[in-house]
């Protein structure tokens, strides 16, 4: 029933005639229920091997598991509505970690004491970086609970292990007491489960937010490929980002060939809404794949948010 053919076009525009046929999306099954996955629920039945990822001045560890073993699926990168690609390490998450590292080095960003949410985490390397850089709370979200149990939690454990920590170059602010949680489920329902969010209606009526409402920093990589999921993703971000200084760092491809999403199209949706604006932090054109970008989104607080289709 499902085909991953469209997703093989993610990285290349070869064989793609134009953008006109890009927005065909499959009819999806109902999403899995939202749940919290405890760190103790780490899978022991799936084979997990660990390897280093070189990120320039920084090295992190990532695991490798078999999609076939976890989901009983052939080696698909992504099966819409069933398995959303979390077992694969996508290029954007590496771009994002590099940008975060640079931003911290330049003094443009600090994770120290911050509440951080990584949406569509998969391997979770950006969230793991935030943890090493001193975040007070890091919450990881993925569509699939299996991804969290088989990969994200083991990856976090590997990167925080006593054997590895001494080799991490950028752990100056690491706080072993930081609060870590894992949540699985669809973006359309996730706001009910995330501990840091705004109360219903508070976006529209007041500048008086509870001091613990929302996340200070939201991170996400390669999450905007599906046009149909973008509105629930953006709605979730609005419900969960702290006001007025919360920031979103987003890494994604300029265009996801075959499915229609991409940074331009996401930005245009956000600009039409008028609640946030973006600045381009970096563009990656390695010549061998699609153009990738990292944007920093911030709240246009002077414009009082009105009820919109995304709120
Ligand atoms: C292409 S993967 C990217 C994984 C990881 N961020 C990376 O860059 O390696 C897309 C991620 O978004 C999540 N995702 C996609 N659609 C979703 C939805 N409708 N609700 C919740 N999560 C979703 C998936 O769980 C998956 O981890």
From TrEMBL:
Its EC number is 2.1.1.85. This is protein-histidine N-methyltransferase. One of its GO terms (cellular component) is nucleus. Keywords: Cytoplasm, Methyltransferase, Nucleus, S-adenosyl-L-methionine, Transferase. Belongs to the methyltransferase superfamily. METTL18 family. It is found in: Cytoplasm; Nucleus. It comes from Tripterygium wilfordii (Thunder God vine). InterPro entries: Methyltransf_16 (IPR019410), SAM-dependent_MTases_sf (IPR029063).
